Amino acid sequence: MSFLGSPQKGMNASRYIKLSLVLAFLILVPLIWRENRFITTVFISALMFGIWGVMYDLQIGYAGLYNFGFAGFICAGAYGSALAALHYEINPWYGLLIGGIASGVLGFFTGLVTLRLRGIFVGLATWFVAEVLRWTISNTPGYTRGMLGLAVKPLPDIFGLNYSRAELLPYYYLLLLLVIISFTIAFLMVNSKIGLSFKAIREDQLATETLGLSATKYKLINFTTACFFTGVIGAFYAHYLGILTPDTTEFGVPRTVEVLTMAYVGGRGTLWGSIAAGFLLIGFQEYFRELAAWRLVLFGALLISIMLYAPKGLAGLKKYIW
């Protein structure tokens, strides 16, 4: 019996070693090069887009839910936290939770209306909701400042850590903590009975419903959970960035496409692939920034190459990566 159990123990040990190496990399690299603000900025962007990619993957990769309005839920979290701090003097630390709740509630009610639909129709409905939210913010300058730009308060100092925007490391390690929490909950969810229900609905919704499972219920759980954590990171984004405007590049279709790309390049139905894709794609963009518009051509060539030679994304190259 011990002989039969040893391979499994070896696999678990190998998994823990890999996880430890990844965490050591994420913790130590920005600390070692703390004087180089560029590296910390790239790591923040990579982690932020990576975890948004994880939440998009939770929706499309596990439950088959198209969300073309993903940026709108980032927007809900960002503005929810920023407006709570501005108008109601709520501590921005609570604002992180408020941003999550704002996006989660929006996701819940959007799901109630749209998740009885299927396929592309769900995506179009979520895009409509996101655009309505963005245009509402744009046309209420008295409350949201609209296109004039909303100045967002930085996070207050806590536990002796200085969260002024001149200090990047506290923001980075806060984001890393939020990413670990969000990823862990998503991982536990997809590896539970709930996750099995997600996959069953993705593969054949009609057959799943004949077994007595409510597809709408599990879709709603998936959609609301992903939107909640999207909003939490959106709130972090607001306080980290310092100013918000409801333009298309920040909260419109281009931002949704960026997140969608993370999920597809990372590999749908993997979760961790989006984090790897975040570092690959953000690093790629920054490395070739001097090429201006030409780097977008290289970016497109990279995406085409992955689609042709690694249709399962970076997850399909896992053995080569390790």
For this entry, give a set of tags.
single chain, 322 residues, ABC transporter involved in vitamin B12 uptake, BtuC, two-stranded antiparallel sheet, globular
List the helices and strands and how they pair.
Elements: H1 2-32, H2 37-60, H3 70-88, H4 92-114, H5 120-138, H6 141-144, E1 150-151, H7 169-190, H8 193-203, H9 205-210, H10 215-241, E2 243-244, H11 248-251, H12 253-266, H13 272-287, H14 294-309, H15 318-321
What does this structure look like?
There is one protein chain. With 322 residues, the protein is mainly alpha-helical. The chain has a single domain, classed as ABC transporter involved in vitamin B12 uptake, BtuC, CATH 1.10.3470. The protein contains 15 helices and 2 strands. It has a two-stranded antiparallel ribbon. Helix 2 crosses helix 12, helix 8 (193-203) crosses helix 10 (215-241) and helix 12 crosses helix 13. The longest helix has 31 residues, at 2-32. The protein starts with a helix and ends with a helix. Mean pLDDT is 89; it is low at 1-5.
> Distance N terminus to C terminus?
30 Å
Please indicate the count of domains: 1
Task: Tell me the name of the CATH class.
Answer: Mainly Alpha
The total beta strand count reads 2
User: Could you say which structural class the secondary elements and strand pairing correspond to?
Assistant: mainly alpha
Summarize the structure.
The protein is mainly alpha-helical and 322 residues long. It has helices spanning 2-32, 37-60, 70-88, 92-114, 120-138, 141-144, 169-190, 193-203, 205-210, 215-241, 248-251, 253-266, 272-287, 294-309, 318-321, and strands spanning 150-151, 243-244. It is globular, with a radius of gyration of 20 Å.
